[in-house]
Amino acid sequence: MLNFDYYTPTRVVFGRNTEAETGKLIREQKCQKVLVHYGSGSVVRSGLLERIYASLKAEGIQYVSLGGVVPNPRLSKVREGIALGQKEGVDFILAVGGGSVIDSAKAIGYGMTNEGDVWDFYAKKRTAKACLPVGAVLTIAAAGSEMSNSSVITNEDGLIKRGYSSNYSRCRFAVLNPELTYTLPDYQTQSGCVDIMMHTLERYLNHGTNMEITDGISEALLRTVIKNAQLLKKEPENYEARAEVMWAGSLSHNGLTGCGTDGGDFASHQLEHELSGMFDVTHGAGLSAVWGSWARYVYKERPDRFANLAVRVLRVSKKDSEEATALAGIEAMEDFFRSIGMPVTLRELKVEPTKEQILKLAEKCSFGNTRTIGVVKKLGREDMAAIYRMAKG
Predict the structure, then answer these.
(1) CATH 3.40.50.1970 domain extents, the chain
(2) Which CATH number fits domain 186-391: 1.20.1090.10, 3.90.1150.10, 3.90.480.10, 1.10.8.10?
(3) Per the database record, which ranges form the Alcohol dehydrogenase iron-type/glycerol dehydrogenase GldA domain (predicted)?
(4) Model-level pTM greater than 0.90?
(5) pLDDT given for residue 6 in this prediction
(6) Cα separations in angstroms, 231 against 31, 281, 339, 376
(7) What's the CA gap between 281 and 349, in Å, rounded?
(8) Pick from 174, 187, 198: which is nearest to 250 by CA?
(9) Which of 145, 186, 317, 370 could lock onto 102 through a cystine, CB 3.0 to 4.6 A?
(10) HSE on the CB side for 359, CA within 13 Å?
């Protein structure tokens, strides 16, 4: 095992009706004026936003609102939020929504507490020194941003999607009520389940040493999401299944499943970021569409890890060799994705990039051929292009 630094300061308030505690949680942060940040009209139509406002009013907390966050959140909305927050003198940002809203809120927090252009942090030009306090009321179990130190933003200028990670942006609290996810379309629910699994798979499929306890946690989390994703196909208002998935989402990306490892691979995420940047696809669906091709491209570097995944998580019987077991596991994972309605090729994702677009995707993913991605197998620009071509289906 490797040395590690595990830091998870976010307070989690989990269960039915917990959104009613939002005002009290913000008051405990000694904040006076809140920017309530949210996405589409669903939080309005469901009455959630009004319940949040009532909770704030009950604690005497002033607020202003900014909606309109979209999946793959946009830099222009972040800049709008920074300008509004500065004008109104807010000292706390409350994200009401899923990972896109939380990521946008974190970026606004960076922009309000650091001079210069907030995009500089995502473009890796400089490092943030602070972030306005952020809290979250989660409505989609997927990204894990409510407990992670990361956020991902898309710059419309060039359709560039980039992430930035800093402990300054970790949410002060996260309100998790599984009932708030009942009304999600099945496609969003299942895309979220894929995203949750990928956050663990990226860490599980590594090229370093591993801790038995970390492996066990990761494998249990994956099995739990597989079981409950399939259950939610039939019973979308099953509270226990929603609760299992929601808590798995938080645990999958708060660092727990990477303790004692080399940090994980994350090539699939990097490859997908360019896909959703260029084609604006749903993140989880994009991940399932590229994962199998990535796995087949790299599995020979760590057939033992892929074989463990096959046997311990996907219940594949051991084959004559580790490589054969690994391949059977990759096929079993793709079978699972199909069983919950997720694509396993770009064609199934309804994206068919041209040769020129594939080269552009690889060029952007490699930062103009200046970086490699992944640790299972280090991937250069040509490797990336090869995986995109394999993924076409």
Answers:
(1) 11-180
(2) 1.20.1090.10
(3) 9-178
(4) yes
(5) 92
(6) 41, 25, 11, 32
(7) 8
(8) 174
(9) 145
(10) 3
Cα four-point dihedral sign 73, 146, 47, 64: negative
User: CA–CA separation, 64 vs 57, rounded Å?
Assistant: 12
CA distance 278 to 358: 11
Is 351 in contact with 281 (CB distance < 8 Å)? yes
Does the domain spanning 11-180 belong to CATH 3.40.30.10? no
Tokens of 335: 């079978």
Helices (H), ranges, 59-113:
75-88, 99-113
* CA triple 206-246-313, angle to 5 deg: 40
Q: For the purposes of burial, counting CB atoms within 10 Å of the CB of 36, is it exposed (0-12), middle (13-18) or buried (19 or more)?
A: buried
Q: Are 193 and 236 in contact (CB under 8 A)?
A: no
Token pair recorded at residue 94: 């409350």
Average pLDDT of adjacent 10-residue blocks, the chain of 393 residues? 90 98 97 95 92 97 97 97 98 97 98 98 97 98 96 94 97 98 96 98 92 96 98 97 98 95 93 95 97 98 97 98 98 98 98 97 97 97 98 94
Is the separation of the CB atoms in 170 and 10 below 8 Å?
Answer: yes
